[in-house]
Write the structure tokens for this entry.
Amino acid sequence: MAKQNTAEILDGILERVKAIDTVNTRKWFDDLTIAAFDHGLMQIQCPDQSCAEFLQDHCQSAFTQAAQAITGHLVSVQFLSSRGSAPKIVVPPPAETANRVRLHPDYTFESFVVGPCNRLAHASCIAVSQNPGMIYNPLFLYGNVGLGKTHLLHAVCHDARKQRPGMAIQFLSCEEFVNGFISAIEKGAVQNFQNQYRTVDVLIIDDVQFLREREQSQEEFFHTFNALYNNRRQIVLTADCAPQDLAALEERLISRFKWGLVARLDAPSYETRIAIVKKKANLRGLNLPDGVAELVAEHIKTNIRELEGALTMIYATAQALGVPITVELARQALGVQEAGTAKHVTMSDIVRTVSDCFDVRVSDIQGKKRSQSIALPRQVCMYLARGLTRHSLEEIGGHLGGRDHATVIHACAKVEQMYKEDAEFRDRIDVLTSRIVPRS
Ligand code: ADP
Ligand code: MG
């Protein structure tokens, strides 16, 4: 079939896919080509293996549906990862047979936005992917759900794979490790299981908190860890909390987790959230008009996965209504009101007003003193900042004497309780609020 003809067919297919499958459409779809189209089999060439696997896993039916609609024939679509070879047919090199988890094409270092909340984790992952086993071993990343731990692990794999294609990398979730171990015991194949993990160059295990209360798996993991560590093989682990907080894990494992580098991921600040929304929109080839990323970042503060969900919602709403994305449409899609009170309040507005009402000095509120006469106004500042500004817990704590986010959470809960139970206190807070946010 003529080249121009296949290009036109593909353009038509992509246009339809973008309409049918708003969630999975990516900008790199524009780099796809039709490698062959014969006897009802359409082979689509992808930029790399992870892209081919992504399409196979998520978009097969959208592409098939679109290809049939455009050509008017019964067509079966196949995605090729390198010229002329479909990922299912190709026999991967030994190092890659070990890769249990499919790498997500979106989860690269390039698509990861770096901010104060994740700088150390990001830098250490880059160092590890460039020099596995040499610098930080083990590398232990931890943080709440949705802050980018799994993304960084995929990025390490992408990068390590690119730099040293022959390297044996094992990347799996802790759950898979535990289930694999249990099934190896059942089948009497523990030796095989051990060989599979103890001989790799890089072992990456996501969500090791899953080892809690699984004593035999912990034991197995302990020996795997030692074997790899003693041979200077790289180990990268993630968890939802710091090693010392992994209660119910054996002490000897916890202490090993701390041998290398432990890096925490925090919730992103407003600016980082805006950058993430823009990056995600860019990956999908979406042009967001001014103000949309800001709106999303203002309303979703903690989990980055929810930022993406919001973006999907806006895109899908625009598609469904057949209108372009605007700030108004985004507001409608997210169900948020016209920006009101929260918009222009700053930390210094709050601190100044509270200092005035409680008759304490601004410098004391922002300082280290812990006496009750200062602690309460400081807690009130935290509570008001939480409700009236778009700052993250970390930023609020940072502004008020370098407190951590747990302190801010505690303060907000305490003030909320007092607000509910103490009518006089409630009036005082209401007056304060109305002074900070004058009603128009
Ligand atoms: P975790 O494993 O910590 O629960 P994930 O790695 O699954 O979180 O991240 C959730 C989503 O947020 C993913 O889509 C990921 O790409 C995205 N994400 C998280 N942090 C960032 C970041 N700094 N830049 C871009 N995307 C991010
Ligand atoms: Mg994860």
About this structure: Residues 3-81 form a domain with the GMP Synthetase; Chain A, domain 3 fold (CATH 3.30.300.180).
